[in-house]
Amino acid sequence: MTTLFKNIKELIQVRTEPISYVSGKAMSELPTIKNAFLMVNNGLISDFGSMNDCPKTGFSEVIDATGRMILPSWCDSHTHIVYAGNREGEFVDRIKGLSYEAIAANGGGILNSAKKLQETSEEVLYQQSKERLEDVIQLGTGALEIKSGYGLTVAAELKMLRVIKRLKENYPIAVKTTFLGAHALPLEYKENKEGYLKLLIDEALPKIAEENLAEYIDIFCETGYFSVEDTELMLEAGKKYGLIPKIHVNQFTAIGGVQAGVKHHALSVDHLEVMRDEDIEALKNTKTMPVALPSCSYFLSIPYAPARKMINAGLPLALATDYNPGSTPSGNMNFVISTACIKMKMTPEEAINAATINGAYAMGLDDKVGSITKGKQANLILTKQINSYGFIPYSFGTNQIEKVYLKGKEICI
Ligand code: NIG
Ligand code: FE
């Protein structure tokens, strides 16, 4: 099956030579082809170029994209979309003046979600999570990472990971899985953090490895949650089972988590709302991708990651949603891109690079998605009739997507 998209007003994020990611000044360049064609064969991008060179034969289906643009689908490298119920009650508590930290300290927050998840069957958890996955696919996400971390018992963590596995098997979207057992300390272990980490290391990790349930390991390295020492312990333990680190750091305080991530060759360090100069310095000339989560800053009214400072220092940056019930109940990458432009002063080119090729790198999928490159999956966004790609972040809150394709197939859910 070969599909030809013809008369594309502008084909965006065209990378003829494969690249892993873009950093610093290069983030402001977004290569495109105006008046383009794109050919898809068996779910993969097989050819593209100017309409002047458009093949006349050799395809079984033609889609006329006149007036519309095509981009690679968004790559959301940080989500927690598998969760039970919601935390709307805490949302109202925060409106009335309680802080996110105070709610967590009173047994709400992550522990609230963990209780709900422990009481929810695997089947119901799957049904709730699949609705969120279908929603984000319609919003243009074509690859995503999903974390555990709302189970906080061995059984409930495994339940989450099995749900992620089922989503991965049942949907054509590329999914990567992260074990985040060390997301918060369960009440039973309030005075015994070592005991909880030992449980994760001695009981959860071997089972995860045995069933092949995760590729990455994460920990919430934060004051009041897990220390740098705990972080190093978990990352070392994960490494023994081949799990690569992708960690939550510098959300509320800077305690050296970035440096621990770099030391352990983390694929990404995520959040970064609070960045000291030495944290930016530590990321230079490393293979660790900084990931900003602007929807989380928006929802919690906390600082935004200092994107300009990081990019001006020559670093790469990826953007992701952090879709979760507590700090970011939204999986909309279009909103993330708008917010990055509006609040973090990223240009549309930088934001689109951060949400495609750099996001793909941050979840180890840069050889499969994130750009218009021959051989990559044809995970595509076909826009409505718009005059420039900058209109996508500009028209915040408005859907500019007409159709989405995964592995070349139109997805209508
Ligand atoms: O990435 N910061 C840690 N974990 C999640 C939110 C946890 C929650 O409130 O449920 C995050 O923001
Ligand atoms: Fe998160």
UniProtKB/TrEMBL annotation:
Gene3D superfamilies: Metal-dependent hydrolases, Urease, subunit C, domain 1
Domain of life: Bacteria
Enzyme Commission identifier(s): 3.5.2.7
Binding of Zn(2+), residues: H78, H80, H248, D322
Binding site for 4-imidazolone-5-propanoate: R87, Y150, H183, Q251, S327
Keywords from the named record: Cytoplasm, Histidine metabolism, Hydrolase, Iron, Metal-binding, Zinc
Any one GO MF annotation of this record: imidazolonepropionase activity
Swiss-Prot/TrEMBL catalytic activity: 4-imidazolone-5-propanoate + H2O = N-formimidoyl-L-glutamate
Protein name (database record): Imidazolonepropionase
Lineage, opening ranks: Bacteria, Pseudomonadati, Bacteroidota, Flavobacteriia, Flavobacteriales
